[in-house]
Amino acid sequence: MNLGFRYHVASLLAVFFSLILGILIGGAVFPDHSLVEEQALLISELEERFRENRAQLAALQAELDLSSRAWLELKESISRDRLTGRPVVVVGEGKSSLASVLEQAGAQVEMVGLERLGQMDFHEGLTVIFPLTSERLSQTEQEIVQALAAAGTRLSFVWGRELKPSAAELPPSLQVDSIDTSFGEIALLLALSADLEGHYGLQESAQKLFP
User: 154: which DSSP letter?
Assistant: First the structure.
């Protein structure tokens, strides 16, 4: 059960016990037989409502788990041999989850730091993926991106769900948001394999979820 469900259950419990405590205190202050019966009926209704909510939460959690497994299996099916033999440069240091996804699709992935990227020979047909971590490109990043675009390099920019970069700074390219989800990873693989440009993902500015 994730934190959202746990918080919801905890909130229901808190409300439930607060109501019971209030009813008990009211019964102690006003010891009337009819009031006690009403209190017992109300407690019974609250218990039934809590059981129903708990069952609904369990069903929603099961549905969420099934959906997560389904998207994972779909991603694995889509990625199989999707980018076989394609050279892809991912800007960054060390291994990343994005690099692993691309390698599973058959791409020849190389992780390259920004400084080293600026010293490379750019050529047409090379795919370079920039994982964005801020809303605006630095001056160094802008210069490198301009050089890559001038050389005919296939440019891709990817970012997570919470980030909303300035699209005006990006040259014509492939742009995929929510890359930290299976949706974003699937969109990237589909677009790369078809050499597409445009913005895909979950954010409102995207033209579509998938190419």
Answer: E
